[in-house]
Write the structure tokens for this entry.
Amino acid sequence: MRRVALAVALSLLPLLPLAWQASDLGDVANLAGLAGAIVMWWQVLLGVRQLSHRLGDDRLASVSLHRWLGGCGAFLVLIHPLLETVVDRQGWAYVLVPDFTWAESAYASLGRLAFLMFLALWLTSTLARYLVTHRIWRYTHYLSYPLLALVFVHSWGLGGHLAGHPWLLAYWLGLAVVFAGVVLWRLSVSAWALPYRLVGVERLSPTVRAYTVEPLGRAIRPRPGQFCYLRTSLRSRAHPFSVVAGGNRLTFAVKDAGRFTERLRRLAPGALVHLDGPYGAFTREAQHGPRRPAVLIAGGIGVTPFVELVRRNDDLPLSLVHVVTSPKEAVFGEELRDRLGDGYREVVRPARPDIRVTPRARYFICGSPRFVETTTAGLRACGARRDQLYTERFDC
Ligand SMILES: Cc1cc2nc3c(=O)[nH]c(=O)nc-3n(C[C@H](O)[C@H](O)[C@H](O)COP(=O)(O)OP(=O)(O)OC[C@H]3O[C@@H](n4cnc5c(N)ncnc54)[C@H](O)[C@@H]3O)c2cc1C
């Protein structure tokens, strides 16, 4: 992801000469708008998983970069209309109330609409993230596509720096063309998901089932710890699940959560599903980094990325702590205990895991966002360094 961060910085370079020449607040407002649009452009690109995965398979790094850029983009996008309001000596309503009576104000109003969309997107991703459901958060995120299209038309229609610099206009058109290509690709990509047939369903606990699928054509070859996106039809939403058994056939262990997992429960063997992937690099360091003890810490169904890792790496110094709400929910417990012996520990809530922190060990933590947060904070409080911690949160 360092390369992507560098590419983001390079993509802003064309604005540098304009920054030197900026002579008044209007120029600064204009520049903030252009820079904000470039950052948003990257945000959209990084938000398309099929694309960000090609830029680097470390999901955490790409999500972190996406969030960090979101903060920078928000700052630029927010100050652009505020400065314009000051420059034009207008009241605050100027930022929000559209006016389509004449050409210039119509182009400005496209920017206002984009700004309102941006506010909804920004609020549901930051301050109100935990007040809205995952579904609402996701649908609001789709606003980023029309939003960016409006931003391109707004900046092109109003001219500003673009009108005075043909090379900048060409650059802008280039960005717009790439954006249009990415949107078209994003819309068609679900059609490329690989068809699989459900060949087995097994109940692992009162709330978890294992689904085994077999390819009907080309097969996905995940590494231990990776996940795939699963959908029940080409039109349905794709949901991520870690692979608990890889090979030609793939198995996923799925815990009851909401609408999608309920739909999965209704599928009978023989049903057609679609997969894309594999994604992620969560446990890569445990297998390929220098040989150091790896402590795997799973909250409930968060054990899934560790199952294949343990199965396929008898020779690695692995231990696993599985935190569950009841012994029945300790899926794969028997097999993991057989393989890891004393290295496997089951902790039933409300008991808390007592994990010894040593300077050489690495800690891999997976589960719900709350579990990951509290476990990470606990390890940090016991002296674990940031570079010893690897996390995977079972949300977006
Ligand atoms: C990398 C990764 C690997 C995962 N592996 C597993 C696994 O092996 N087994 C398992 O049972 N669960 C796994 N999950 C979680 C699983 O994706 C969600 O439980 C599932 O999507 C819930 O969908 P739903 O409609 O049934 O429930 P909902 O009620 O819609 O969602 C319940 C919660 O699941 C999360 N979620 C919902 N949709 C998505 C989505 N499209 N992408 C990411 N998170 C979502 C949100 O936090 C949401 O609050 C994984 C999640 C991630 C991000």
The chain has a mean pLDDT of 89.
